[in-house]
Specification:
This protein is mainly alpha-helical. Helices cover 57% and strands 6% of the residues. It has helices spanning 5-19, 28-35, 39-51, 76-84, 98-117, 120-133; strands at residues 55-58, 64-67.
Length: 139
């Protein structure tokens, strides 16, 4: 399974919104600047996320986007499925030989399990711990 830039950047947007959850709407321009991404490309990712109910938009001078649920209620699998489609490791699984079919099925189940048990909150917390791990202190 290969996650395209669509899935990776979409996950970046949702994690960015999740890290500011409860602080009001965040402009897409701000997320694009903070992560050095194309705002025009991110604008293409928002409609499917909005249609699926993951994000909502707020219009006006202080508008932007925000999550519709808490970061703990949204999984990485939710975002990836909306932007990438069904999570499949191998196309044409039925045509594989029986031993290989079982392997591909187990691998696909494992990938789905990881994506469906990893919440946006988990990703936010993981990002926080990685930031502090990169510092070296001398006494």
């Amino acid at each position: 399974m290969k996650i395209s830039t669509k899935g990776r950047y979409g996950l970046t947007v949702v994690v960015a919104l999740g890290s500011k959850f409860g602080e009001g709407p965040i402009p897409l321009r701000k997320i694009a600047e903070d992560h050095d991404l194309s705002e025009a490309y991110l604008e293409q990712l928002i409609p499917p996320l909005r249609n699926s109910g993951i994000v909502k938009s707020v219009r006006g001078a202080y508008g932007g986007y925000m999550l519709t649920k808490t970061p703990a209620e949204i999984t990485a699998g939710d975002v990836i499925r909306v932007l990438e489609g069904p999570i499949q490791l191998v196309e044409g699984l039925e045509e594989s030989d029986v031993p290989q079919r079982e392997l591909w099925k187990r691998m696909g189940d494992a990938v789905r399990a990881v994506l469906d048990t990893t919440t946006i909150d988990d990703l936010i917390e993981s990002g926080k711990s990685n930031v502090t791990d990169n510092y070296m202190f001398y006494i």
